[in-house]
Amino acid sequence: MEVLQHVSVTDSARTQSSILEQAAWISAFAALTAIGAQIEIPHQPIPFTLQTFFVLLSGAFLGARNGFYSQMLYLAAGAIGLPVFSGATFGLVRLFGFTGGYLMGFPLAAALIGYLVSVRKGYTWTLFSMFLGLTAIFTLGTLYLNVIAIHDLQQSIISGFLIFSWWDVLKLSAATAIYTEISKRFKKLPA
Q: Is the dihedral of CA 98, 137, 167, 157 positive or negative?
């Protein structure tokens, strides 16, 4: 009986440690996304930032569930008043403003990427997975921008999607290379 109690205590401690470790990684990627938002090239109506770079990495490293949680934590932090959105802004007005569709796409993209990279490994598959995640972000963002501001789908695609293509090819390439190299050397982060 004493052996069973010891095993139970050990399993409980391991589970608690795993939960704390996961929470730390979720928080770290939410913070990295916030930092990426502050690295900004001003542009109207949507600025160029590094947010999506960290969204891609959060999904790949944390997996579908925890990648999703990290981006939901990022959005929640901004919604409650922490200056985590681009330009150190915050609040529901920002969350539902011009960039709202993109922001709402972050958790979806992280979950999609996390799921896809768990199915298969390799540089090409990771690139494809992250490309689909970016496509999800830009589809939601562009459609939302069209509905709330531009009201011309062709102009919305030009202003909310195509203008970012060169910038996002760089982020996509860098995120894929970083994930591929680090995942060869280290065990996957807690998911």
A: negative
Convert 129-148 into a string of H (helix), E (strand) and C (coil): HHHHHHHHHHHHHHHHHHHH
Q: How far apart are CA 168 and CA 136, in angstroms?
A: 13
CA gap 14, 31 in Å, rounded: 26
Range of the domain at 23: 2-185
Q: What CATH number corresponds to the domain at position 74?
A: 1.10.1760.20
Alpha helices by DSSP H, 146-189: 153-160, 165-185
pLDDT tens digits for 135-155?
999 999 999 999 999 999 999
pTM of the predicted model as reported, rounded to 2 decimal places: 0.89
Tell me 149's DSSP state.
I
Q: Compute CA distances 42 → 47, 140, 141, 144, 162, whole Å.
A: 5, 21, 17, 20, 16
Q: Which of 17, 50, 35, 38 is nearest to 168 (CA)?
A: 50
